[in-house]
């Protein structure tokens, strides 16, 4: 059975505790925004510091929502400035369950 946990970006932005708990329970985590590189690095660092040696690490990838034109670019920039949330999504899973995540321009493929 595959467990999938959806966690809103507003919760993840300030604290990775819910993500960490879900990963400990061997669940895939979906976040409703694209994490920036600093957030990804912090998550990896926290994961490796907090988990035991039996934990094999995480696989993660983010994808941005496609932009169709100048109006969409402006809307995305405005939303990002107001909320700090980048359009797209992020998927994270324990490396013991997720073998790899393959990223194409419009999709993420999760191999288990």
Total DSSP helices: 4
Strand order of the largest sheet: 1-2-4-3
Low-confidence stretches: none
- What can be said about the biggest beta sheet? 4 strands, mixed
Question: What is the total domain count?
Answer: 1
Q: What structural category characterises the helix and strand content?
A: alpha+beta
Question: What is the CATH domain class?
Answer: Alpha Beta
At CATH level 2, the architecture is 2-Layer Sandwich
SS strand fraction: 25-35%
Oligomer: single chain
Q: Which of globular, elongated, flat, extended, rod-shaped describes the shape? A: globular
User: What integer value in Å does the Rg equal?
Assistant: 15 Å
Order of SSEs, N→C? Answer: EHHEHEHEEE
Mean of residue pLDDT values:
84
Short description:
With 112 residues, the protein is of the alpha+beta class. Helix content is 38%, strand content 27%. The strands form two sheets. The chain has a four-stranded mixed beta sheet with strand order 1-2-4-3.
Structure characterization notes:
This protein has 112 residues and is α+β, with helices and mostly antiparallel strands. The protein has one domain (4-111): Translation Initiation Factor IF3, CATH 3.30.110. Helices cover 38% and strands 27% of the residues. It contains four helices and six strands. It has helices at 9-14, 17-24, 37-50, 70-83, and strands at residues 4-7, 28-31, 58-64, 88-94, 100-103, 108-111. The strands form two sheets. A four-stranded mixed sheet has the order 1-2-4-3. The protein has a two-stranded antiparallel ribbon with strand order 5-6. The longest helix has 14 residues, at 37-50. It is globular. The chain starts with a strand and ends with a strand. The model has no long low-confidence stretch (mean pLDDT 84).
